[in-house]
Design goal:
The complex is a heterodimer. By secondary structure, chain A is of the alpha/beta class. Chain A folds into 2 domains: 216 residues, 3-Layer(aba) Sandwich (Rossmann fold), CATH 3.40.50; 134 residues, 3-Layer(aba) Sandwich (Rossmann fold). Helix content of chain A is 40%, strand content 18%. By secondary structure, chain B is mostly helical. In chain B, β1 and β2 form a beta hairpin. The interface between A and B is large, with 45 and 41 residues.
């Protein structure tokens, strides 16, 4: 009471207290929003930044995984100013300086996803929570990509997908934190249709063997829509388990089904096995409905073509990129990769390398690792020089819109890597489509979840 | 419709051939030594990698770098010269072309040694231990074998081409009076079936018509009495373990052109083969062979679209479904001896 009487009234105490509370607590939230915003998952505070590489080093897509790892290590070396700089020299526009990302040296941790979605998700969780990965990237299966990008959305970490071709990745399962450079099944169908029509005519009967998971389903749907649009009939579409190995029991019914085209919606080792076994069944020497029996592999890769050997000759498919393209970006990447590893890069390697650079470039342009700002920098960003012509990271679904290659197994290869010929480079506007046709919601970027 | 059914039947025979060959070795080991050998799939895989190793040896190359030229991908140009073809000319080319069948010649001694070493070194210490411990130790051995192969050959499948003359399909339909190209089947798969018939026949003949075989059969029936007659039955059983390893190894070699081998190949077949043995009857050699072919044929027919239209997914579960039914109705399996593994 004495104190109050000496000048500190009750009102004065309350006023001072309120001012103190406001001054120490609420006001900083109002006036220093940016400082709070920087509290996000795995905000790098030291002089290094860690990327999480989620790679299928074993399992049905292990070949792709091994090549992806090489590409990531090369991209990280280039970002850190080592080697010849690779595509950093030809990317336009570019904010990359060759001194890491925002001046921090780039490091990485890896996890073997075993080509399994649950293992991929567990590996990504570990790399985020234990290793402090600021960004997760990799994968060679759409099942993995969809599982991991869902997780990344929950944890507030950006996911730069590796090889994923399902329409769902940037369709019904798209996420704000997930970005895909690779093309998709819908674009494969659009690109491949006219070539198939010209080569095999409009009166054909197709039999599909389809890997039984998201990618296989969407590819089967897209290719069926395309071929039926050409006038082809679909005799049967049979689902096969991923990693089946022996496809003989699925191939025998094809022989007398009345089909004259076999469409293999398989990838990786599955495709090598199913194609090799289809050739062993004499399908390429058969006649059906008065026509030569044909095999089509809608999604090709050089690694698969190499594994399938001469069985691949003359077979049509599509690719995201091929090392013998003659634009400056493709030449630069092929030389850089070839000098480092003694072999040309695969499309899986290319997309992973490009994704790493695009993430780093977006962070540089945003001036922060804060994911919502990086997302803004990537959405609607248009660039060139990466080997696919002028490319747009479409804001509506995070799908890169660029040209698509129609390829054919090389009849006269000059080396073990010279297995595919680019038949046609289908331009971006031809394979463009309305982002809303596959549905899905990107979800929010903010508030950015804090993972730990 | 006949041709469709006939093709599925052929497919069942060739699938069944692989199951029967592995199950035969498993049954030999169980019947003689009483050991439940979970490492048997690994022996199949090791055989397959004998073929891989042999081909890698035959395709060794000398690599010289031409510093004046670069490849299209920027690496210095490598000029490769195959050694075997350089040394032996046309014969070298034939060796490379027929590397898979020729590799059986090295697989037999290698697998015999592996089998005997395994039995003498580890398995013999577990004869009188419970089956659960035998399963644990042999499963552990399988994992070790897998990891060794993975560390040497990597995780990815390594394709083994079949001889060029044996590629493509045989027009079986024309042999039995059908029009050309109506019933065709891959030549190598027919060869694999014939090979399995020969091996199975050979093992039965060996056990039936040789003195060694008679002693082994007697030992399988009553080990102690045979021992009391002054016969070293343990040594013969060790050789039987080696023989089982050879059968599994040869089955693995001949399977490589059908499915590129990787370190996991043995595990892929192991569970199926155990189901085959259980369905056939533990310890029954004819039961193992019959069940192998039966389950192969059932699996093949279950993959037909007409069947799957009625019961979706039946192709993935048919083998296990049959096993459940057999175990419920006849716990000792189709041809199992009364009292063996019934309790």
């Amino acid at each position: 009471m004495k104190l109050l009487k000496s000048g500190m009234s009750r009102r004065r105490v309350l006023q001072t207290g309120m001012a103190g509370i406001i001054g120490s607590g609420v006001a900083p939230m109002m006036f220093t929003k940016g400082a709070w915003a920087q509290e996000f998952c795995n905000n790098p505070t030291g002089d290094t930044v860690t990327l999480g590489l989620n790679l299928p080093l074993t399992g049905a897509y292990a070949e792709e995984g091994a090549d992806e790892q090489k590409a990531y290590e090369l991209a990280i070396a280039h970002l850190n100013g080592e080697g010849d700089g690779g595509l950093i020299n030809v990317l336009t526009p570019s904010a990359l300086k060759g001194n890491g990302i925002l001046g921090k040296k780039v490091g990485f941790v890896t996890s073997d996803s075993q080509t399994k979605s649950d293992v991929a998700r567990a590996g990504a969780t570990r790399m985020i929570e234990r290793d402090g990965a600021i960004m997760i990237t990799g994968g060679s299966s759409s099942g993995e990509a969809i599982a991991v990008q869902g997780l990344c959305q929950e944890m507030g970490v950006i996911f730069m997908a590796g090889l994923t071709h399902s329409n769902d990745t940037t369709g019904k399962d798209k996420r704000r934190y997930g970005f895909r450079h690779f093309f998709n099944a819908y674009q494969s169908g659009t690109a491949l249709g006219p070539v198939l029509s010209e080569a095999y005519g409009t009166d054909r009967r197709a039999y599909h063997l389809t890997a039984d998971y998201t990618w296989g389903w969407t590819q089967e749907e897209s290719i069926k829509n395309t071929t039926e649009g050409l006038g082809w009939d679909t005799v049967e579409a049979v689902r096969t388990p991923l990693g089946a190995g022996d496809f003989s029991q699925f191939l025998t019914p094809v022989l007398n089904s009345g089909a004259d085209v076999l469409i293999l919606n398989h990838y990786g080792n599955d495709m090598v096995n199913s194609l090799t076994q289809a050739v062993q069944f004499g399908m390429r020497d058969r006649q059906a409905n008065g026509k030569d029996f044909q095999i089509v592999v809608p999604l090709f890769s050089e690694l698969m073509a190499k594994g399938a050997g001469e069985n691949i000759k003359g077979i049509y498919g599509t690719s995201n990129w091929h090392w013998n393209l003659q634009d400056p970006g493709s030449i630069a990447f092929t030389k850089s990769f070839g000098a480092a590893y003694g072999s040309p890069p695969s499309q899986a390697a290319h997309t992973c390398y490009v994704q790493t650079l695009l993430y780093a470039d977006a962070v540089e342009r945003a001036g922060t690792f804060y994911p919502p700002e990086v997302i803004k920098a990537l959405e609607g960003h248009e660039f060139d020089g990466m080997g696919n012509g002028r490319t747009l990271y479409r804001a509506e679904d995070h799908q890169c819109m660029k040209s698509v290659l129609v390829v054919q197994g090389n009849d006269a290869p000059t080396s073990e890597y010279d297995v595919l010929n680019v038949v046609q480079e289908v331009q971006r506007d031809t394979v463009d489509y309305d982002a809303s046709i596959f549905g899905g919601e990107l979800g929010p970027a903010e508030p950015a979840p804090v993972c730990a | 419709m006949f041709e469709v059914i006939f093709l599925q039947f052929l497919n069942g025979l060739d699938k069944g051939a692989a199951y029967a060959l592995i199950a035969l070795g498993l049954t030999l080991v169980f019947g003689t030594l009483g050991v439940v050998n979970f490492a048997h799939g690994a022996l199949f895989m090791l055989g397959a990698f004998c073929a891989v190793m042999f081909r890698q040896f035959l395709t060794l190359e000398t690599v010289t770098i031409d510093p004046t030229q670069t490849s299209p991908w920027g690496a210095p140009l490598e000029i490769r010269t195959p050694l075997v073809q350089a040394w032996f000319g046309d014969f070298g080319a034939v060796l490379v072309n027929y590397s898979v069948p020729f590799s059986i010649l090295i697989t037999i001694p290698i697998m015999l040694l592996v089998g005997i070493a395994l039995e003498r070194g580890i398995i013999k210490h577990f004869y009188k231990r419970p089956h659960a411990e035998q399963i644990l130790v042999t499963f552990g051995l399988a994992i070790v074998a897998q990891e060794v192969i993975k560390s040497i050959f990597g995780p990815n499948p390594i394709p083994q081409p079949m001889p060029t003359d044996l590629r493509g399909a045989a027009d079986i339909g024309s042999w039995i009076g059908f029009q050309a190209n109506v019933i065709t089947y891959p030549l190598w798969r027919l060869i694999y079936f014939l090979f399995s018939v020969i091996i199975i026949g050979g093992v039965f003949a060996f056990l039936q018509f040789t003195t060694f075989g008679m002693v082994v059969r007697a030992g399988m029936a009553d080990r102690e009495t045979v021992g009391l007659l002054g016969i070293n039955i343990d040594r013969r059983f060790t050789i039987m373990f080696g023989l089982a390893a050879v059968v599994a190894g040869m089955a693995g070699v001949m399977y490589t052109p059908l499915l590129p081998p990787n370190y996991h190949l043995g595990m892929d077949f192991l569970v199926l083969s155990f189901v085959v043995v259980v369905v056939g009857g533990m310890g029954s050699l004819p039961g193992a062979v019959a069940a192998g072919f039966l389950l192969g044929i059932l699996q093949s027919f279950a993959s037909m679209t007409q069947i799957k239209a009625i019961v979706p997914g039946i192709d993935q579960i048919i083998i296990y479904l049959v096993a459940v039914v057999i175990l419920l109705v006849r716990p000792r399996g189709l041809m199992g001896r009364r009292g063996v593994m019934e309790n």
